[in-house]
Design goal:
- The structure holds 2 protein chains of 2 kinds.
- Chain A is mainly beta.
- Chain A has no helices and 11 strands.
- In chain A, strands 2, 4, 5, 6, 9, 10 and 11 form a 7-stranded mixed sheet that branches.
- By secondary structure, chain B is mostly beta strands.
- Chain B has no helices and 12 strands.
- In chain B, strand 5 and strand 6 form a beta hairpin.
- The chains are: A mainly beta, B mainly beta.
- The interface between A and B is medium-sized, with 29 and 25 residues.
């Protein structure tokens, strides 16, 4: 059973471009979480999705950021018109259940650099 | 606000000596608590978790943690540090009715000297 996959592992964008980060959850997992790790900071929750539904986006910036988890295919975190402050590591995690007793399995992360 | 505090941003120990990484959480009904480890430029790996069963939780690689409700603490310990333990450690909490959302502490960087 392959783990959580994220691609690309490293992404460089110029200010004003769009960034698309992909996350393929573990097989059988229908719950996906995105977290952001800014330099010198811990991880912060961004958004929680189930197939075709956004359940909790309380951690997402109100502008330029969006996420989806379609019926088929990976979950996508999209950042429009990137700025230098978006430079961070973005981690995706998946779980078979939203029950907090279940472990979330993390992907290796996508490291976004905005130049 | 619901939160978790790691009391040390950096801990340095010598190989073979005990490790103690401290964590306190904001009080709430029946939290779930986790410790994750992150090696440089890698993803996060679960070390152990507490979900209202035994208060002393054993994890991988010889780590363990004790849930103390009266002190709202969940400190991580290991009797004898190994060089490979050098990494960033995160104390994490999840609260009831939060959809499994994880709240991370700021992290503690563990250095192990030979």
């Amino acid at each position: 059973n392959a783990g959580v996959m994220q691609n690309p592992r490293h992404l460089v964008r110029r200010r004003g471009q769009e960034a698309r980060l992909r996350c393929s959850p573990m097989k059988g997992h229908s719950h996906v979480y995105w977290y952001r790790q800014l330099p010198e900071e811990g991880l912060k929750f961004m958004v929680y999705l189930q197939k075709e539904n956004i359940i909790d986006e309380s951690g997402m910036p109100k502008e330029r950021f969006s996420a989806e988890f379609p019926k088929e295919g990976p979950s996508i975190l999209r950042i429009q018109q990137v700025v230098r402050g978006d430079s961070a590591a973005y981690f995706c995690a998946s779980s078979p259940s939203a029950d907090r007793s279940y472990e979330q399995y993390f992907g290796p992360g996508t490291r976004l650099t905005v130049t | 606000a619901q939160s978790v505090t790691q009391l040390d941003s950096h801990v340095s120990v010598s190989e073979g000596t005990p490790v103690l990484l401290r964590c306190n959480y904001s009080s709430s009904y029946s939290p779930s608590l986790f410790w994750y480890v992150q090696h440089p430029n890698k993803g996060l790996q679960l070390l152990l978790k507490y979900t209202s069963a035994a208060t002393l939780v054993k994890g991988i690689n010889g780590f363990e943690a004790e849930f103390k409700k009266s002190e709202t603490s969940f400190h991580l310990t290991k009797p004898s540090a190994h060089m490979s333990d050098a990494a960033e450690y995160f104390c994490v909490v999840s609260y009831y009715n939060q959809g499994g959302k994880l709240i991370f502490g700021q992290g503690t960087e563990l250095s192990v000297k030979p």
